[in-house]
Specification:
With 765 residues, the protein is mainly beta. The protein has a 22-stranded antiparallel barrel. Strands 3-9-10-7-8 form a 5-stranded mixed beta sheet. A hairpin with a 2-residue loop joins β7 and β8. It starts with a strand and ends with a strand.
Length: 765
């Protein structure tokens, strides 16, 4: 018996589901109403109280809980020569995840980066040591714009590790994350979840599916959520979302799926704690610490409650048309329009002038952003199977047209955010005489009466990016034991930046190929051994105007950074019925033309980076009661050639070979491991335990600012009152570990949330 990925699960493997709705008993409705009313009143959202996490559909087949929804994979995951981790719906539900970053906590080899001046607040992932901020996809199509993504309308999450350019175009060398959306199904169901918890946690979700004709269906997912961040003063927020989809032609040769997605968030973003090592010269160097964050209370917040905010909005319309021809050939066309907004004022605890060491103060640096990103994408593909000379081909080929436009500005404050006593961001003192722009390192007051007028700066930056691409993938089966996987993509990438007030213009026009290949040997039907090669290309302006990899005059004429990855791996489905998937891989990734400062002070493609690593993964069931999910990743990530460094002045530069050659990548732990396991003690009661651990992480290429490694433990218990209602208790960070979970800025480290507890009533009706 195993839980399939097409339904979100309660943790109990014995629970069964029906394909037709039925009313709940009166006493159950009364109990749910008593739970829901205070939560609804507190949430303040126009959402009906019978909303919830989806229930579980169980079948009798003992198969591994892993199947990809990416049609560009032309072989089952068992025979795909890539490292791919699928986080299924039941793992998302069991762990109590409510955001993409929550869900990715179960995948080793991924770290979350901290925002900075040029790096926006949002989902900043690092995969295998490389920044994958722009490598997030929804149903295989790039999801541009800086966002913090929710999972209420997500069926499962797929993490592809290694160069991803052949699959998605311009990309980093580390990999990408693909979110699979919930779509209308051929049977009726109603599911809802009502959650309450510590730190003002309130969450309502609903998932409703209805047949609306002989061959059509409608599905609606809704969500309202609010909470404070455990252990952090002031930080928290609320959000709500709605995602309807309708499908026509569920069982016919022609199928049309139309989906709409909307998410709105309001929050006060976190500030983190500065590193204790900001000075390199001068008499105060002796006061430096060892480079880890300052030893202050976990709740320390350096922002201003009446200044800081973050408002985001995301809207997507998706039309998916597919038609099956004779012989199993499928024609597909997907058209998508999306718009995202990310507006914020966020306080960075700046240490760049040594205030923390010299004076015990912090400058409240106001990082601001006002952005709108619009995307329009059309993809046409053909897929199927054919036989040539007794050799089987499973193929997928297509063309893609994409346009992204980003308008970015920032906020201007009156009075300004510098210290009026010095005219700069140097803070020998703090308090009212500095207009509260300077605060104390220890015990700052987030409710200081900071008074201001805020306006949007006229310094607007407009970036327009166009991509035309063609791709093809083929799995060639020579016999039952040997397969060859081939893939190629050609991109025509153009991006233009215009800054209106300064009349600055930069443009890149780049064409590049991305390749992947893998030879697969199957010593048995339930296993494979593969040797794979893949490339990635990261052109200047890769972020489309809303990220750290921005287009500038200095880099506009450079070639794309190119990475190559060689990987040797094996995959096995073991245990009776192949219900447990095991994977292992060793790999080496190199970038021989990284963008760095050259001896003449210009930026050139002359740097080199290298990552050597190994991965282990497991997913499935050790028995009908015992499920496991997780893995281990080892990363030896080295900045082999960091170019040159100016040790002189701006007026009289003196460039020397970078002293940071041989250092580790920032935001890249050498060791990381995850485990999530559940055990069904009885047919009604299940318990779960999660462990996440990683070693030290550096905040800069200098390797003199870092956050210590940590181990975090989570726990879960679930009890089924009957076949329609279950209760789930999640305790996150069970030991209340004080740790840092966002490290990539050279100024500060993000604080991980403290201990929290949530209780959810999950209902089917």
């Amino acid at each position: 018996m195993t839980i399939k990925n097409n339904d979100t699960a309660t943790p109990t493997s014995f629970i069964t589901s029906r394909k037709h709705a039925r009313p709940l008993p009166a006493h159950t409705l009364a109990m749910l109403a008593s739970l829901a009313l205070p939560a609804v009143a507190h949430a303040g959202a126009d959402v009906t109280p019978d909303l919830t996490i989806p229930s579980v559909q169980v079948t009798g087949a003992n198969q591994p809980q892993q199947a990809s929804a990416n049609e560009k994979f032309t072989a089952p995951l068992l025979d795909t020569p890539k490292s791919v981790t699928v986080v299924p719906a039941e793992i998302i539900a069991q762990t109590g995840a409510t955001s993409l970053t929550d869900a990715l906590r179960t995948v080793p080899g991924i770290t979350i980066g901290a925002a900075e001046g040029g790096n926006p607040v949002g989902d900043n992932m690092f995969i295998r040591g490389y920044n994958a901020q722009t490598d997030t996809y929804v149903d295989g199509i790039r999801d541009a714009g800086s966002q913090s993504r929710e999972i209420f309308a997500v069926e499962q999450i797929e993490v592809v590790k290694g160069p991803n350019s052949a699959l998605g175009g311009r990309a980093s060398a580390g990999g990408g994350v693909n979110l699979i959306s919930k779509t209308a199904q051929a049977y009726d169901f109603n599911r809802a979840s009502i959650g309450i918890g510590t730190d003002k946690y309130r969450r309502l979700t609903g998932d409703f599916n209805r047949n609306i004709g002989s061959d059509s269906a409608f599905r609606l997912n809704v969500m309202a959520h609010e909470n404070d961040v455990p252990g952090r003063a002031v930080v928290g927020g609320k959000r709500y979302g709605v995602a309807p989809t309708v499908t026509f032609g569920l069982s016919g040769p022609t199928r049309v799926t139309i989906g709409v997605y909307h998410l709105t968030t309001h929050e006060i973003p976190d500030t983190g704690i500065p590193f204790n090592n900001p000075l390199t010269t001068g008499p105060d160097v002796a006061k430096n610490g060892n480079g880890r964050p300052f030893d202050v209370d976990r709740s320390t917040f350096y922002g201003l409650a009446n200044r800081d905010f973050r408002d985001t909005k995301s809207d997507i319309v998706n039309i998916d048309l597919r038609h099956q021809l004779a012989g199993g050939i499928v024609l597909r066309n997907v058209t998508r329009y999306g718009k995202s907004n990310n507006d914020y004022v966020w306080t960075q605890p700046d240490d760049s002038k040594g205030n923390t060491v010299k004076y015990g103060t912090v400058w409240r640096r106001a990082n601001t952003r006002v952005t709108e990103t619009r995307t329009a994408t059309n993809v046409t593909s053909i897929s199927g199977e054919l036989q040539t000379a007794g050799i089987k081909h499973t193929y997928n080929a297509g063309i893609e047209f994409d346009r992204e436009t980003t308008d970015r500005s920032n906020y201007v404050f009156t009075p300004g955010t510098n210290n009026p006593l010095t005219g700069t961001f140097t803070c020998p003192t703090s308090g009212s005489t500095t207009l509260y722009n300077c605060t104390t390192l220890v015990d700052p007051n987030p409710y200081d009466p900071w008074v201001y007028t805020r306006t949007v700066s006229p310094a607007l930056t407009h970036v327009s990016t166009k991509t035309k691409a063609a791709y093809a993938f083929d799995t060639i089966e020579f016999d039952r034991q040997w397969q060859l996987n081939l893939g190629a993509r050609h991109d025509d990438f153009k991006s233009v930046l215009n800054t209106l007030t300064t009349a600055t213009r930069a443009a890149v026009d780049s064409r590049f190929w991305s390749l992947q290949s893998g030879l697969v040997y199957k010593p048995a039907e339930n296993g494979s051994i593969y040797l794979a090669y893949a490339t990635s290309a990261t052109p200047p302006g890769n972020d489309g105007g809303d990220g750290l990899d921005a287009l500038t005059v200095a880099v506009q004429n450079l070639q794309p950074q190119r990475s190559r990855n060689v990987e040797l791996g094996t995959k096995w489905d073991v245990m009776p019925g192949g219900r447990l998937s095991l994977t292992a891989a060793v790999f080496r990734s190199t970038m021989n033309n990284a963008r760095v400062t050259a001896p003449d002070g210009t930026t050139q493609n002359v740097g080199r980076k290298a990552v050597k690593g190994a991965e282990l993964g497991f997913s499935g069931k050790l028995s009908s009661q015992w499920s496991v999910f997780g893995g281990y990743t080892f990363l030896d990530a080295t900045v082999a050639d960091n170019g040159y460094l100016n040790v002189g002045t701006t007026a009289k530069p003196v460039y020397v070979v970078s002293p940071y050659n041989g250092n580790r990548f920032p935001a890249t732990p050498k060791h990381s491991a995850t485990l999530w396991t559940t055990y069904a003690v009885t047919k009604d009661f299940s318990a779960g335990l999660g462990v996440n651990t990683m070693s030290r992480v550096y905040g800069n290429v200098n390797n003199n600012k870092w956050a210590p490694g940590y181990t975090r433990v989570d726990a879960m218990a679930s009890y089924a009152l009957n076949q329609d209602v279950s209760l789930q208790l999640n305790v996150q960070n069970l030991t209340d570990k004080f740790y840092f979970d966002r490290v990539s800025s050279p100024h500060y480290a993000g604080v991980g949330p403290g201990r929290s507890a949530t209780l959810a009533a999950n209902v089917k009706f």
